[in-house]
Amino acid sequence: MPKPSRSKSPKRTHAEARAAGWRDPLAPQQELISGKWLLSALGIVLAAGAICSYATLCLLFYQGSWQLIFHPSHTDTARPKIPYQEIHFDYTETGRPQLTGWWVPAASGARYADKTILYLHDGRGSLSDTVSQIQDLHALGINIFAFDYRGFGTSAALHPSETSMNQDADAALAYLTDTRHVPAHFIIVYGTGLGAPIAASTASRHQEIAALVLENISPDALTILGADARTKILPVRLLTSDRLNATEALKTLQTPKLFLDRGNSPQTHEAFSIASQPKQLFQIAPEDPAKYLETMQRFLDEVLLHQ
Which of 26, 159, 213, 256 has the least C-beta neighbours within 10 A? Predict the structure, then answer.
């Protein structure tokens, strides 16, 4: 009996075999990932990581740059050794005061008993650090109203900024005119350190005030930030809105101005050179309080007693 013949499978071409998934074990293996592609991918990953790190650094600076400019304290240890009244003002819609200040009245019959100095302290510390100067100013025979900005002392908690400090200065001026009924032309705005550009800005918005006193003007915010080595690689100007530059407001301000350099404040001399008339500049040694009071009294006589 004849044996059934086996059918022979047709030979596959090389292309058909490759299409069917068959590989010739003797054929050279093709590289799945090229070295060039791998290096390019690694470069992209590293670049993306660097961009993310830089963006994170910019965000951290944006959120925390205020700490390089302002150095508030929440201590409330020192108080004036003269009669004063603690004032809470600038109430929110819920009836909570945002600002705390001291009203230090002039003695009855004092030289400027119906006039008031609105004192704007430096961007560091709190009211407790101003006691000595407030007592000196009180010796002139004038009312003093000093307060802590939000974020300082016992005023409302807030990260201070140029905007918030300007708002607080306006609120303090409104308290004097609206609550205490002090005429604006009986008010002298006095700013020291970082309070000086706030005082200049306030005077430019309220040119009805009697006079402006600027003491030891602080470097502006961009100069302060630029002095920190950590900011050299950052677009600081784009990451903060704080400027605290007194010169812009002073260029056209017609309010009588007294510039006091009580130590070594080149910014005070620079601001004086830019400011419009009327203006006066005095350099007084820190250890010469008598000269300071004499200068202040002469200026107050000029701007207040002839109204």
Answer: 26
Interatomic CA distance for residues 53 and 193, integer angstroms = 35
Q: What's the CATH class of domain 68-304?
A: alpha beta
How far apart CA 242 and CA 221 sit, in angstroms, is 6
Give the whole-angstrom CA distance, residue 215 versus residue 153: 21
**Neighbouring residues of 63: CB distance < 8 A, sequence distance ≥ 6:** none
Residues in a beta bridge with 125:
72
Integer Cα distance of 75 and 153 in angstroms: 6
Which pTM was predicted? 0.87
240-296: pLDDT as tens digits = 999 999 999 999 999 999 999 998 899 999 999 999 999 999 999 988 999 999 999
Q: Scan for tokens 């300007």, then name that residue.
A: 166
* Other Cβ atoms within 10 Å of 12 Cβ, number: 12
Give the strand pairing for 142-148 and 97-104: antiparallel
Q: Which of helix, strand or coil describes residue 86?
A: strand
Over range 208-236, report the average pLDDT: 95
For residues 2 and 44, give the distance between their C-alpha atoms in angstroms, rounded to a whole number. 72
Is 149 in a helix, a strand, or coil? coil
